[in-house]
Amino acid sequence: MHTDLYSKGQYKKKNHSYHVEDSEFKWKIFKNILIKSNFIFNDIESVVEVGCGAGQVLANAKSSKIFNPTCKFAGYDINPDAIDLAKKIDKDLNFFNSDYLEIKNGRDDLILSADVFEHVENTYDFLSKLRAKGNFFLFNIPLEISFLSMIRKKNIFEDSYQKVGHLHFYNKRTALLTLKNCGFKIIKFEFAKDRLFEFKKKKNLKQLLILFPQYILEKLSLDLSSSLFGGYSLVVLAKK
Hints:
This protein is of the alpha/beta class. It is built from 13 helices and seven strands. It has a seven-stranded mixed beta sheet, with helices on both faces. Helix 12 (211-220) runs antiparallel to helix 13 (222-229). The longest helix is centred in the N-terminal third of the chain and has 14 residues, at 23-36.
C-alpha cells in the first residue's frame, strides 16, 4: 500500500466523498449473501471493518440490527481524514486511525473488507495476517479485468491506479484463487453490480446503449457478462 496516498491527504483530494454514495449498496450485498448462507447472526458479538473509510458501511451494519444485541462494532483505517469523517456518523461506533493488523487482540467474529486488498502492496501477507484475526470474513472485490478492459484504447488500469490507488486487478478466478491461496475457505460468492449507479454515470447515448447487450447477457450468464464487459464486483463470504 503506498501509504502517502492515504495518510497525507492525497486520497481526499482525488476522492472527496470517500465513496459514501456506494456504502448503502455495499452493505446491502453483504447482508444478502449472509442471509442466503443461513448465517447465524445471533452468534456474532464483534464486527470489524478493515479499511472502513468514512465508516458508512459499518454504520449501516449496526443500524440493520440483525446481529446479537450486545454486538460491538469497530472500524479501522490508516487514513486520518476518513476517520475524522467516520467519527461524526455515530458516537456509539468506535473508529480508529490505525492498522488493524498491528492491533493485539483476540479473534473477531466477523471482519468486513470492502474494496481493500487491491490497494495493498503485499496482498498475500495482508490477507494471511487478516485470516488469523477473524472467524468469518466478507469481501467486496472490484473485478476490473475483462475482455473489454483489455482491448479498450483507454487504459482503465492506469486510471484506476491514479484515481483510487488500485495496485492489483482481478477477475473472478484470480480473486477467488488469491483468497484460497491465503488459506480462506470460501462459503459463498456472488457477482454484484449497482445498476442504478451505473446508469447515472453514463453521460451520453452511446454509453447508455452499451448497457443493453450487457443487461441481456447478464440474464443468461453473470459469469460471462463479467468476463466480457467488466464493471462488476465479487462478494465473498469466507471463513478462517
